[in-house]
Structures are given as C-alpha cells and as structure tokens.
Design a protein that fits this description.
- The complex is a heterodimer.
- By secondary structure, chain A is mainly alpha-helical.
- Chain A folds into two domains: 241 residues, MetI-like (MetI-like fold, Orthogonal Bundle); 62 residues.
- In chain A, the strands form three sheets. A four-stranded antiparallel sheet of chain A has the order 1-2-3-8. A two-stranded antiparallel sheet of chain A has the order 4-5.
- By secondary structure, chain B is mainly alpha-helical.
- In chain B, 69% of the residues lie in helices and 0% in strands.
- Chain B has 14 helices and no strands.
- In chain B, helix 7 packs antiparallel against helix 8, helix 7 packs across helix 10 and helix 12 packs antiparallel against helix 14.
- Chain B is flat and about 115 Å long.
- Classes of the chains: A mainly alpha, B mainly alpha.
- Chains A and B meet through helix 1, helix 3, helix 4, helix 10 and helix 11 of A and helix 2, helix 8, helix 9, helix 12 and helix 14 of B.
Chain lengths: 397, 368
C-alpha cells in the first residue's frame, strides 16, 4: 500500500516566448493597460499641479487646523465657529452617521412591514402596500426631500409660537423639542444593568440551546431575555436612587428652552430617506419571502410545527439568505443618499465640505475627504453585512 | 336475506360559489377577524380622507393663472394656476421663450425613439441609424446656429430635455464601458482585474453627488491650462462613469449566470476570446440582464435631478428657477413640486412596467 497517491502529472510547462502564447499576450496587454492608466494619471496630476500653480491655489491639508469661522446649526459634539476645520468635518461626519443609523433602523422596520403586507390576505392592505412602493420608488429622492422640507416649513407653526403636544413636546419651525431624562448616577447604573441583562440573556440562550440539543426539549428564550434586560435596568435605576428628574422643554419668550430638539432639516432628511428607502426594502423583503417555496411551509406544518415556529425556524432563515445581500445595498444607498441633505441645508459632511470649498478653495482636498468618509462607511457596512451574511448562508460541506 | 330497503343517500350540498364578487369580497376583505378590522379601519380612513383630498385637489382648486384667486383659495384648494402660469419655464428652463418649440420637438423625438427601441419588432440594424438621426436632430435643434435658427449655448438649456438627454446619453455611453469592465473583472489577468475592481468599488462606494462635485469643481483643474470644457459635458462624463460602475456589476451578474460549458464549448470550436464573448457569451448574458439595465436606467433618470445641485437646471432645477425668483408665486411651490413629481412618476412607472413585462417575456422561454 503506497502511503499517498502519486500526484497528478502536470503537462510540462511550455515557455513559449512568441506572440502566439496566451501568457505572453496577457503580459503585454497588462503592461500596456497599466502604462496607459499610469500615463493618464500622470497627465491629470501634472495638469492639476500646473493649474494650481498658474491660478495660485494653495494645496495641502494644513487648512484643517485653522479656525473654520462658520457656525453649524446642529452638532452632537460641542462646536463653536472658531473651532478648527477638522472639528467642523467631524461634526458633519457625525451628523451624516446620525441620520444614516436612525434612518437604517426605521427603514428596516417600515420596509419589512410593507414587504410582509404584500402577502396579506386582505386586498386593501395588499393594494395599499403596493401603491406605497410604486409611489415612493418612482419619484427622485432629492425631490422627495425638497417636498418634505417645504411641507414642514409651511405646515409648522412659526418658531415664536410653537404648538405643544401633551405639554411636553413642542413642534414649530424651530423643530421638534422632546423631554430627556437628566443624566445621573441612576441612568448610568440602569444602562449598566441592561448591559448585564444582555450578557445574562446570552448565557441563558446558550444554555437553553445546549439543553435542547441534549434533551430535545425547548426552553423559552425570548421572554426570559426581555425579563433579564428590563430587570437589570430597573435594578440599576433603583440602586442609583431611582431618579425621576426630566428635562422638559418649555416655551420661552423667543424659543423653546430645555429638553432636546430635532431641527426641521433633520426631520425632513430622516423622513425623506426613510420613506424612500423603505419602498426598496419592501421589495427586497417581498422577493425574499417569495423565494421560499410553498412546500417548505407545508412540510414544516406536516412535521407539526406551529405557524410561528414555521416562520422562525423554516421560512425566515431561508428568506434571509435571499434578503441580506440586496438589503446591504439598500443600507449603503441610504447612507450615500444622505449626502443629498446638502440641498435642504442639513449640515452633513457634504454640506460642510461645500462651505469649506467656498471659504478655502481647496476643492481637491475637501472632495477627497468626503469620498474617503463615504468609502470607509460603505466598506465598513458591507464588511459587517458580509459577516452576517456568512452566518446566515447555507452551511455546506 | 331480506333485500335491504332502498335507502337514498342524502343529497350533497350545492358546491360553494367561489367565483363572483361576493365570494371575492369574503375571501379578500373579511376572511377573518383581523382582516375584517383592517378593512373597516382602511375604508373608514378613506371615507374620511379621500373627500378632503378630492375637494382640495380638484373641486376647490384654482386652475386659472390668477395670483389673486390662488391667494384667496390658500389652504382650501390647490393652486394649479401656478402650473398654467409657469409650465413653460418648468419644462424648458431658461431656453429662449420664442424658441421653445425646438426643445419640444427634440424631446419628443428622443422619447419616441426610446419608446420605439422598446418594441421587439424594431430591434433591427436600422434602429442604430434611427438613433443617429435622432441624436443629430436633437443636438441640431437644441444648439441651432444654422438655417436661421438662433444659436443657444448649453447654459441656457434646461428642464425636461436636459433630464431626458442626460439619462439617455449617460446610459447609452455607460453600456459599452460596463461590458468591458465586467469582462475585465472576470479576466484571468491580475492587473486588468485589479483595475476594474478598483474602478467599480471606488465609484460604488461614493455618492453620485461627490462625483458631480468632482466634475464641476475638480475637472477644470485636470485639463491642460487654457482648455475649458462645457459644464454639461463634464457632468455627462461624471454620470456616465457613475452609472458605468453600477451597470458593470449588473452585466457581471449576467456573465456569472452563463454555465461554464458555454465558454468551454466555444474554446473547443476554436473561437478566440473576443469571438467567444461576442458570439456565445454576451448574447446570452445581455439578454438576461435587460431588466437590470432597465432598473439602472430608471435609477439614473431619477438621479439626474442631482445635477441641479451643481447648477444645471434640469426639471427640478428649472422648477426652482421658475418659482424662487417670483415672490408672488413662490408660496405655491408645493403644487409645482407635485407637477414635476407626476412627470417623474409617469416616466419611471412606465419604464418599470416595461421592465416587468420584458422580465416575463425572458423567463417565458425558460418556464415552458
């Protein structure tokens, strides 16, 4: 018995340095292509440098350290107009991320509901979901943003006399003000308790799975998990002295004082992006559900699984496989479309870059920063979703 | 054995009616409690809301271009008068007023040829000639400057012609680029593959608006000193490069769906690489991706609205131009928005219907 099978014999490699050889031609093509691209790049860079010298444009990223000199309407981190440019860009990036993250969460919820609604046994619900998708998908997002913004500006009462909802929310041309709890020890401990609850739930889910694999008997997971998280949060809150202080907005002489607020620009961007992208997400979800053959649900029913189990254990995992890749694309689209906020004056990173270009004339640098920000976000999101997709993919041998 | 007495079987109930209006209603609106509740809520909402909408949009609306009447009807009825007053500015932007028959004919010709290209019976060699003739007519009419036609520079172009032209030309130009890049991405040559991957991923990772900013701010710096390139052309190049990357991915999807045996069979027959692609692979792959390309066309048609941010007045920009400068009519901007939204919707919806139809036609040959 031979220890190992003899390796397959490879045909002798021919080193044929003639034009007829595919390898040689491939090599030549590649060298030519690289040369052409290098030449084109050199041409562009050379022209840019010459132009900059001729027009007396300064270049370099040193301007990032000099004071920006403009105000930004909303900022998540403290910012004043004499802060440097890099701070302004950071504020812009955070604003972009804020609208993108909240938008992604909301659009996923709304889009999934709409997508499932397309399978309702009620014709009106079906028709409504269909009408929604067609209506919002076929009008440009920029136009929708402009329309929402105009609508908000026209419909909202003037900033001086905002409308109060339940006495704690105020809505006016200045935006929507809402109460926030006064941050203190209680809230911090509540957060820590909730985190502990998450950890406990994860351990519980693991032990429940092991128990199921050992005995075949399922244990409830969802309800205990909710109980752990809520219990942890409440416990932390009580230990921290159960603070109940809220920062409630009040109508002052000229503006709303106290509480937190969202500007109309932010609301318009969020509303426009969410409603537009939800129509695409709805189609993605619908296609995913439609891709699971009927027989799967029927077979699960024949095995005695309940409707909920059928959905959770059989249909959903298969549908997710179809849904995740196009869903990633929609998340990326939403993030990229948030750049249109510049049209209605929401200070996202593009808008900051636009102002910076007008003030400093460093177009190349500012556009490079914008592109870099979006590239990083896009690549980051797709890496995350690829990881999730791998988890959901078919486990093959 | 006594003969059993004749026992007639009880008559079977008549079959339940499954056709007609009533069973349909029962099945689709009142099949169970949640469905019934949903029906009642939705019908209630419609009864409450639809009359208000109809009253605002149709009954109480002002159709005549009278500013005072619109002002009087504010909040009660829509002011469609703003459309009757401004529609030429919205549709054709800053194009000289007496010459606006030219963009009208040019756009009509382009839309007509686009529609003709959707009909299978017209997919003949002479369609290419038709396209060439249409493009010559389009640019001849738009530019003018001959046969007594006044010359109109591109910065006066605007409105619907610009929207249709930007979308059509960028897709038309992006298509060959996309095919080449898609083939390059599947090439066995590492350098070529890397170049194509970098191009596609770079473009797909950034928003269109940054590409447009680049076309408008940076492109002049890229060119040799002294040359100036029309902003319309720069933006067209930007949109083409952008849509080319997306379309390359669509085409690559089609290429991946072709079984490997096709390429091997072509190799066996002794076809060269380009012969194999041209005669065997691409015809099958491209037929498969027509719906995807259609969807890309719809996306680009909508995305042309972004050129208004770099000061080209296509439909959205022309509308802003028409109303922002006129303080009398500015309060009725929302009606004007509805007008152009309806135009976009009409174009995009019909294209998506066509895409669905062609998808069905394509799969019909597979699902015999």
């Amino acid at each position: 018995m031979t220890a190992s099978a003899s390796p397959p014999r490879t045909p002798p490699r021919q080193r044929d340095w003639s034009w007829r050889s595919r390898h040689v031609r491939g090599l030549i093509y590649q060298v030519v292509a690289l040369g052409l691209i290098g030449l084109a790049l050199w041409f562009l860079v050379h022209n840019t440098l010459t132009n900059m010298r001729v027009r007396g444009i300064q270049s370099g990223f040193d301007f990032l350290a000099s004071p920006a000199g403009f105000d930004i309407g909303e900022h998540l981190i403290p910012y004043q107009s004499n802060d440097p440019y890099w701070m302004a860009f950071l504020v812009g990036v955070l604003n972009t991320l804020r609208v993108a993250v909240i938008g992604i969460v909301l659009t996923t919820i709304l889009g999934t509901l709409l997508g499932i609604g397309r399978f309702s046994n009620n014709a009106l619900v079906r028709g409504l979901c269909y009408a929604y998708v067609e209506l919002f998908r076929n009008v440009p997002i920029l136009l929708q943003l402009l329309m929402w913004y105009l609508f908000l500006v026209q419909a909202l009462p003037p900033a001086g006399e905002p409308k109060s909802i339940l006495g704690v929310f105020y809505i006016g041309a200045g935006g929507l003000s809402y109460p926030v709890p006064v941050w203190g020890l209680g809230q911090a401990l509540a957060g820590a308790g909730a985190l502990l609850g998450v950890l406990l739930s994860w351990l519980w889910a693991r032990s429940a799975r092991l128990h199921f694999e050992r005995t075949g008997r399922p244990r409830a997971v969802l309800l205990p998990a909710i109980a752990f998280v809520l219990g942890g949060a409440i416990l932390g809150w009580v230990v921290g002295g159960s603070p109940t202080a809220w920062n409630i907005p009040k109508a002052g002489g000229f503006s709303i004082e106290g509480g937190n607020s969202m500007t109309p620009e932010f609301i318009a961007v969020l509303l426009g992006l969410t409603l537009y992208t939800a129509s695409y997400v709805a189609e993605v979800v619908r296609a995913g559900i439609a891709a699971v053959p009927h027989g799967q649900g029927e077979a699960a029913g024949a095995l005695g699984l309940s409707k909920g189990q059928q959905m959770r254990l059989v249909s959903m995992p298969q549908a997710l496989r179809v849904i995740i890749p196009p869903m990633t694309n929609q998340y990326l689209n939403l993030t990229k479309n948030s750049s249109l906020a510049v049209a209605i004056g929401y200070p996202d990173v593009v808008s900051i870059a636009n102002t910076a270009i007008n003030q400093t004339g460093r177009a190349v640098e500012c556009i490079a920063i914008v592109m870099l920000v979006y590239l990083t976000t896009s690549l980051g999101t797709s890496a995350l979703m690829n990881w999730y997709n791998k988890r959901a993919a078919i486990k093959e041998r | 054995m006594a003969a059993a007495a004749f026992q007639p079987i009880a008559p079977r109930p008549a079959p339940v009616r499954t056709e007609g209006a009533l069973p349909w209603l029962k099945r689709n609106l009142f099949s169970n409690l949640p469905s019934t509740v949903a029906t009642i809520i939705l019908v209630g909402l419609a009864l409450w809301w639809l009359p208000q909408l109809i009253s605002w949009a149709l009954v109480k609306a002002v159709y005549v271009p009278s500013f005072t009447e619109c002002q009087a009807a504010r909040g009660i009825g829509a002011c469609w008068g703003v459309i009757t007053e401004k529609y030429r500015l919205i549709l054709f932007g800053r194009y000289p007023f007496e010459e606006q028959w030219r963009p009208l004919i040019a756009t009509g010709a382009m839309v007509a040829v686009l529609m003709a290209s959707c009909v299978r019976a017209f997919w003949r060699p002479w369609l290419v000639l038709l396209w060439a003739a249409m493009l010559a007519l389009f640019f001849g009419l738009m530019f003018g400057g001959f046969a007594g036609l006044q010359h109109v520079p591109t910065d006066r172009w605007g409105g619907l012609p610009l929207t249709v032209m930007l979308a059509t030309l960028s897709i038309g130009l992006a298509f060959p680029l996309a095919v080449v890049v898609a083939l390059g991405r599947r090439s066995k040559m590492p350098a070529i593959r890397t170049i194509c991957v970098i191009y596609v991923e770079l473009i797909r990772g950034v928003p269109l608006i940054s590409v447009l900013f680049m076309a408008s701010f940076m492109f002049p710096l890229f060119m040799p000193p002294g040359t100036s390139i029309d902003v319309l052309l720069r933006v067209l190049v930007g949109i083409t490069l952008f849509s080319g990357a997306y379309m390359a991915e669509i085409v690559r999807g089609g290429l991946q769906a072709i079984p490997k045996g096709q390429q091997e069979a072509a190799d066996t027959l002794g076809l060269s690489y380009w012969q194999a692609q041209r005669k065997v692979i691409l015809p099958q792959a491209l037929a498969m991706v027509v719906p995807g390309i259609m969807n890309n066309f719809i996306a680009i048609f909508k995305d042309t609205s972004l050129v208004t941010i770099v000061s080209l007045y296509e439909l959205t920009g022309a509308m802003g131009l028409a109303l922002n400068s006129d303080s009398d009519w500015r309060p009725f901007k929302i009606e004007a928005y509805f007008f152009i939204a309806a135009i976009y919707f009409a174009f995009c919806f019909s294209m998506s219907r066509y895409s669905l139809w062609i998808e069905k036609r394509l799969s019909a040959s597979k699902n015999r």
